[in-house]
Design brief:
single chain; 485 residues; alpha/beta; TIM Barrel; eight-stranded parallel β-barrel; two-stranded antiparallel sheet; 19 helices; 12 strands; 47% helix
Length: 485
């Protein structure tokens, strides 16, 4: 039970006990109730949002209680129903109770209940950050334009995330060709800046001018500072640029941190173990790191050792691709049957999230949710920490082995490859169709596949290979797809 629900009753009793003989009793009850309930719902003390929230509720409810108290007393006096009991004591008790009820009803609206009862938080440098964050790579796009986000649909997702208690939002300069940052700047502008944490990234393969990029990002996101700023996509193709002394990207970020325009510096990584070690040997003062981590990549992409390296260096871990681009939310029939036999009522996604909850150094799990329903369902999985049991872990390992046998090409749909393709191929869509054909024997479920360019138009130039976080040999895959009938 939320303890703040008891406060109005307690303060009512206290105010009555004080023996007030005027209208102060409901005011005392309302004042104390509003103060405590405000804090229990995450309104920060000392901020403008707290002041407006607190005093607005206190003044409006207090005035209503005073008017009600005076009206009730006048009615009872004129009617002559005084008898042997203390009229003022009775009216103050009644009005205090009314005041308590009136302050609870508006405060515990739908979004306040969600914040208080659904989301789990972890402390990070004195800040309470939600264990589930909203990734900005998979917002719904407009029809026939993957680089333009549907504002109406996207806003509903952001609003639902805030409503569910999610306060960490992640984007990047390159996401959806920059529209992800612009959209989040618009969508979050309706909320107080101290109510959420905003993270974005600098990708050297997308732009080499970090100063110009940084200023542009501040404008896009409509903010004066970033809570988290990351080097984007550390791997074998970007490490030399990120560590270059003349470019001195890290020096620039440290200056911005000192100026208060960046609160925490981190990096996202798709690097090999050797590259990750080399990067941390170069600089070991990062505040956090974002890595691809799920129960399939635990061994497939050596995520286990990446997690261990970061933990050994004392760097908190944020997680991307917890569902491997949605693949772990559906699996295949045989793999899904193994998990359903163990936990019939649990969703397939819950297994992936609970796997991560068993890793103590995992701080926040990012999920790119493309509709409000997904936000609600995923948030409900983070209302408590329930790591997998030993028996459940064995079942998950069996399911993973079965799924690997028919998984096909492990594309996560990040679309990093698309902007480099001179033929303009929708590579993730082609791979999705290829995988679906291998699993079900048909591709009718894949919308727009018949309208996209054919894999036979691939020039085999290799430009996409450097951009793929999953290390897929895209040239070979395109060749196979073009030969598939």
């Amino acid at each position: 039970m939320n303890t703040s629900l008891m406060i109005p009753a307690i303060t009512t009793a206290i105010s009555i006990g004080l023996g007030c003989r005027t209208c102060c009793s409901p005011i005392i009850s309302t004042f104390l109730s509003t103060y405590v309930v405000s804090h229990s719902n995450g309104v920060k003390k000392g901020s403008l949002s707290f002041a407006s929230f607190f005093f607005g509720k206190m003044v409006s409810v207090s005035l209503l209680c005073m008017v009600s108290a005076l009206t009730a007393r006048q009615f009872i006096s004129e009617s002559g129903y005084i008898g042997s009991f203390n009229l003022r004591f009775f009216s103050q008790a009644a009005m205090s109770a009314i005041g308590a009820v009136m302050v609870i009803c508006p405060l515990y609206s739908r979004d306040r209940i969600k914040e208080a009862e659904i989301m789990q938080y972890k402390m990070f440098k004195g800040q309470s950050i939600s264990t589930l964050g909203l990734g900005g790579l998979r917002f719904p796009s407009k029809k026939n334009n993957t680089d333009s986000i549907d504002r109406e649909k996207g806003q509903k997702i952001v609003d639902e995330a805030i409503s569910c208690g999610i306060n960490y939002f992640d984007t990047a300069h390159s996401y959806q060709n920059g529209d992800s940052e612009r959209f989040l700047g618009e969508a979050l502008s309706k909320y107080p800046r101290d109510r959420y944490y905003l993270a974005t990234k600098f990708y050297v393969a997308y732009s080499r001018n970090i100063e110009k990029t940084f200023e542009e990002q501040l404008k896009r996101c409509r903010t004066d500072y970033f809570d988290f700023y990351l080097f984007h996509c550390l791997d074998e193709g970007t490490i030399d640029a990120y560590t270059d002394k003349e470019l001195d990207y890290l020096g620039f970020l440290l200056k911005q941190k000192k100026a208060g325009r960046i609160r925490n510096i981190g990096f996202s990584s798709h690097a090999s173990l050797e590259t990750l070690e080399r990067f941390l040997d170069w600089y070991d003062g990062f505040d956090m790191a974002l890595i691809q981590l799920n129960y399939l990549d635990w061994t497939l992409l050596e995520a286990k050792r990446q997690y261990e390296i970061l933990t050994e260096h004392g760097i908190p871990v944020w997680v991307m691709e917890p569902m491997k681009g949605g693949r772990l939310s559906t699996l295949n029939e045989k793999a899904a049957a193994i998990l359903k036999a163990e936990k019939p009522e649990d969703s397939l996604s819950s297994w992936g999230f609970r796997f991560l909850q068993g890793l103590l150094n995992v701080h926040t799990v990012l999920s790119g949710m493309s509709e409000p329903r997904q936000v609600i369902e995923n948030a409900a999985l983070f209302d408590k920490q329930i790591p997998l049991t030993e028996r459940e872990m064995k079942a998950l390992q069996r399911a993973a082995v079965v799924f690997m046998g028919t998984m096909g090409v492990p594309c996560s749909g990040c679309r990093y490859c698309c902007s480099t393709c001179p033929s303009g191929l929708d590579i993730p869509l082609l791979i999705k169709g290829y995988n679906e054909r291998n699993i079900s024997g048909s591709t009718w479920k894949i919308g727009n596949l018949s309208e996209t360019k054919s894999a036979s138009e691939c020039l085999a130039c290799g430009a996409c290979l450097k951009r793929c976080p999953q290390k897929i040999n895209i040239l070979e895959v395109m060749k196979k797809i073009s030969h598939t009938k």
